[in-house]
């Protein structure tokens, strides 16, 4: 749909499946790269050491448990996408289950975390990039900003180009991680795993809470379901992505404990330590570049997903209808421009206020968890048979973790109230 014909046209939610606005350009492996990229992010650089310090060798059980949880979680989201492929993704599923107002709430919650979440990843990426050149905080912000702008630029060109760049980058990173972990495996000492429950069995649960953030991302690709060439590839991409994530996370957790140790103040960058151990001190520069690239992957995937979500909410008038328009090439250019503007403002505020990752991350993670709870509740109502049971399991786990956000429940409530107020005063009339 060209911008000239779409500007004055609103496509109702019940006819979106017939809309030609978004083109089917995604193949299986491009879908896999976007799925994996949404989950396998910069957390892999820091979380193995954090979990090892929390639970000792038994932290491996926390990694394994969350990998297993990823199967029903990813398949539940895939089932919702297959049931109805819609650019609103999980928000559309929640709308079908509980009505348009709650679908809008979920969409707003997810989009509300974009400025903070993008700033967090930009900070992580910038720090790794600046470490290569020995630069300070200003250089780190510059690196992070360039990375974010690059991701948006690729998505402006088109999803196929963006996904292909994602696939190439992801392949290089996974091969690099595999090389480091493979070379470190002979360094693993069996005695490092005894006593296995050195911090106690309860610590495994605490480590699982920390590691949950490494497994957030299965929802981000649901807005892209309309752009798969073959809808069956949604299932295939989900399963392949879970397998790739497991093959990266589990061996890295094992070598972090067996080759580095735990609880000895090693810091939060096990890949740097592993690379230096097996390749020499100069490998830290390579890992710095890898950290920058690894941070780009989730940003690129989330730009694709969040822009489609903003576009879909604009179509529904759950956000300004101006956003629900595509360019002649089928790219949601207005949603991309709006999100980029907000993100650049957030990055500027982060730089001027010298905000830290710890200041921004809680807002992002609380929004993620809220959308997960709503999504799984919708899946319980919409899905049948084994997938319904998978949704119930996922709902129970996600609800339990959500209570750990504490006072940030107030942030979730505030965004929800704003979403409901917008629907009441400016959005479409509820049916």
TrEMBL record:
Keyword annotations: Cell membrane, Membrane, Transmembrane, Transmembrane helix
Q: Would I find Cell inner membrane among this entry's keywords? A: no
State where the protein is found.
Cell membrane
Transmembrane region(s): 32-52, 58-80, 101-124, 139-157, 164-182, 202-225, 237-262, 282-303, 335-354, 360-380, 392-422
Superkingdom of the organism of origin: Bacteria
Q: How does it sit in the membrane?
A: Multi-pass membrane protein
Query: Pfam family example for this protein?
Result: AA_permease_2
| Protein name per the record | Amino acid permease
